[in-house]
């Protein structure tokens, strides 16, 4: 059955909620890191490239009865990138890209959550990458399966907004648009 919640201010990585097994309030306060995933795609020349981040810490405090009080945060270890080859992974750590010796992590902190109905949310927050902080709005869908909540979200970032891939890479070799997808899995509390 579909349940609509009139007011939601929560996570910060855009969460859209799916189907809930019952109409009572549900809380999600822990993220199962092993079952969760962060991936990205971009274009390089004429090829589509897929990659993941293997090490991240996500925190969540989401009550479907009070989404306005929800909080979400994410810290990603940038050296845990897998962009498909060891050469690419090494290159992305250099100063022109992530400059991970100086900026080892990317962080997200939620500031607000908007309920869109049908278990869909927009999580608004601050994303910091390479020392640059930008406001982002992430659409999210929350799907409840048995006693597990799955928060699926996707957003597109412009790497130039965070000064990633400057210099010789600022042209069209690598697309400016980077599509980020995430799946955060959290047990009901």
Q: Can you walk through the features of this model?
A:
The protein has one helix at residues 86-91, and strands spanning 27-28, 37-44, 47-53, 56-63, 71-77, 81-82, 105-117, 120-129, 132-145, 148-158, 177-187. The protein is mostly beta strands and 189 residues long. The protein has an eleven-stranded antiparallel sheet with strand order 1-4-5-7-8-9-10-11-2-3-6. The chain is elongated, with a radius of gyration of 17 Å. It has a single domain, classed as Lipocalin (Beta Barrel), CATH 2.40.128.110. Strand 4 and strand 5 form a beta hairpin. This is Polyisoprenoid-binding protein. It comes from Pseudomonas brassicacearum. Residues 27-187 form the Lipid/polyisoprenoid-binding YceI-like domain. Residues 1-25 form the signal peptide. Keywords: Signal.
What is the element layout, followed by pairings?
Blueprint: E1 27-28, E2 37-44, E3 47-53, E4 56-63, E5 71-77, E6 81-82, H1 86-91, E7 105-117, E8 120-129, E9 132-145, E10 148-158, E11 177-187
Antiparallel strand pairs: 1-4, 2-3, 2-11, 3-6, 4-5, 5-7, 7-8, 8-9, 9-10, 10-11
Domain Lipid/polyisoprenoid-binding YceI-like: 27-187
Signal peptide: 1-25
Protein name: Polyisoprenoid-binding protein
